[in-house]
Specification:
The complex is a heterodimer of chains A (about 425) and B (about 200).
Chain A: H1 8-34, H2 40-45, H3 53-74, E1 88-89, H4 90-107, H5 111-119, H6 123-142, H7 147-150, E2 154-156, H8 160-163, H9 168-193, H10 204-221, H11 227-243, E3 248-249, H12 251-258, E4 264-269, H13 273-278, E5 285-286, H14 296-302, E6 308-313, H15 318-329, E7 335-338, H16 341-349, E8 357-359, E9 371-373
Parallel strand pairs in A: 3-7, 4-5, 4-6, 6-7
Antiparallel strand pairs in A: 1-2, 8-9
Chain B: H1 15-28, H2 35-53, H3 60-74, H4 76-81, H5 83-89, H6 99-117, H7 133-153, H8 158-167, H9 171-188
Classes of the chains: A alpha/beta (about 425), B mainly alpha (about 200).
Chain lengths: ~425, ~200
Amino acid sequence: MAPFPLPVFELLGKPGAYVLFFAIGFAFGYILEISGFTESPLLAKQFYFKDFQVLKVMFGAIIVAMTLVFLTSQLGLLDYNLVWVNPTYLWPGILGGFIMGIGFILGGFCPGTSLVSAVVGRIDGIFFALGVMFGIGLFGELEPFFREFWYDSYYGRLTLPEVFHTTPGVITLLVVLMALVAFWLGEKAEAHFGKKDISREPRWRWVAGLVLVVLAGGLALTAPRTPQEKWERVAPQMQPLLEQRAVYVHPGELLDILHNDKLKPILIDVRSERDYNLFHIRGAKHVPLDRIPEIVPWLLDETNQPNVVIFVISNDERDATEAWKMLVAESVPNVYILEGGINHWLQYFHEEDEGRIRPLEGDFPPETLRWSFAYALGDRYHAAFPNAHEYHIPYTPKVKLKLKRGPTGGGCG
Amino acid sequence: MTVHDVPQVQAAPGVREREEAREAVKQEARPYVSGYVGGLLLGLLLFLAFFLTGNGLGASGGLNRIIAWVLDTFAPHYVDTHPYWAVYAGGRTNPWDSWVVFVTLGLMVGGFFSGWRHGRLRWVTNKGPRISTRLRWVMAFLGGTLMGYGARMARGCTSGQALSGGAVQSAGSWAFMMALFAGAYLLAYFVRDLWND
């Protein structure tokens, strides 16, 4: 498994981790100060095409960090799925951004820069920072009145490669090229509107730009790793769990979990659509095996809550085990397999009634539904959600909930 | 970097001391680095933050929690029963118990340290030449209010959303960034007197 990001809270304990975050913040403040982000007129010049310091620092930082993040992910050093990706709430984000843009041009700072500006004595920075606190307080007070809007248009962990149906490498290359063009145009504008002496900019910026294009180009040309390759990376740690059957959950345990109010089970049914329509456990989502990779971002998002547990279900165990491998290779936590699949489940919970369902005799290839149905029952059948009080099935408990290794509340949380 | 205001050096009673202090400021204050240097350093830091901790950078989130703490100190019952504040400081929840608070504190200390080391600490109001200091203060407060309000609505400020989310290719962060710059550029022409000669 990729060694990074580090489980900082486990490694350093809370005090140590907070020292690390303080150090990161210290460097952040230092860089903002030496970049001149304490001087509001310099920041405002961006919007009159006179000085593109803001663009250079922000866009420069984005392309450097983006290239390194996806490069180290591709090399297997960093696990991107454990990196905090701001969830998308589209319209609150757009409206909030627009309001902030207006605040930026009126006030001349953004929240982070105003704090740095205030501590070095810029009085306008102090007023701005006070305003930020007032605005935050105001939002907190008014939030109950537009709660619905604030939680509207939620897309979870949505990334640009998903939106544009491409790879992170291609997006990285496009963003790098876009940034370089913006820098070049910015310098032209600086010379024209700002009467700035461009020759004083560092020469190495051309080399740095070229290096980024080459790295991002390399990323764009490399195929992302297939689920099989991803599994092979984690197999040494995860294969023993399968062999010890530590992740195969007995139907009796699943039944108890379905009725446990403290847990939030997510059931993923990977069988054919026909079998799913004939019968499935209530609440199970139908996701064929080849579409498992598509639900990874959703599951990463759901498992940010500590009480979510995921079960993959097939007719027997073979296909569910394949799905399990794909999910654990993507660092989705708390994934389990229904032991013996739906065939095993129905052995416990079917009822001999009116011949709607009966077991099939004989030999069948693996992953065959070995029950015959008079018509498609879906989940409108007793066994789809059995009453936990009617059954007392002994089992060995397998589910041990783990907290996700990565950050669970990043962003500006 | 042009600073239009005369530096108002603190605690300088005599004219001569004032002059001397002003000279000292002129000699000591070093110019800011090129945006490309800042961008490269900030990019490396942002990457390092993601690489080591899985989290990016943030600022407004820390302020939000500090405000929750202030409210909780003076009106704990109010915080416990208010749906927004309760998340951060309700009951026994400690609003300081979050990575982003420490990033925000570090940000202030680091900024101060750099300002001190480069001789750029001074009490001064930066503004466009055509407006009064008082108007600048009012506009700074108003702009800050909008920024703080917008940052909570967008669930992150320029650091937490645009910079951090942008670098890890969050779709919402890019939409946010476009909206922010659209808002600023659209209004820039109409408020040009605030900043220009």
